[in-house]
Amino acid sequence: MMISDTARTILSHAMPGARLREAAALGDRTLLLAIGEGRRAVLRLGGEADAWAGNPLAAEASALAAMRAEIDLPLPELLAYDDGAGMGRPYLLCSHLEGVPRSERERGAGGVRAMAGR
Asked: What is the DSSP letter of 29?
């Protein structure tokens, strides 16, 4: 199944009536979705459960819900989570936040930090 087919199937399950305009890969199992008119979401597809940590998407969904309830920072909204029982494949769907990932910001500022420490 192609990325857009997978995204379309999951989106119709998670948000009936929503229209997928575009799906772009952000990583191995992470997609950026353009939904309807101007809305974007991030779809994370489940991988193999870890014998020690269990289902990583379940932990991520729980952590996201707990953090949104406790701290006042911009965090994505959990739109849908399925452990695989409903779709046959686990997924997590959350709102997309604009910005630059911290890892990229730090990489770009690395030269400045290195020089400041001299």
From this structure: S
User: Quick check: helix, strand or coil at residue 73?
Assistant: coil
CA quadruple 72, 74, 79, 85: dihedral sign: negative
Identity at 62, one-letter amino acid code: S
Residue 55 is encoded by which pair of tokens?
A: 């289902």
User: What's the predicted TM-score (pTM) here?
Assistant: 0.76
Buried b (16+ CB within 10 A) or exposed e, 8-34: bbbbeebbeebebeebeeeeeeebbbb
Tens-digit pLDDT profile for residues 97-118: 888 777 777 777 654 444 344 3
* CA-to-CA separations, 111 to 49, 99, 117, in angstroms, rounded: 38, 21, 10
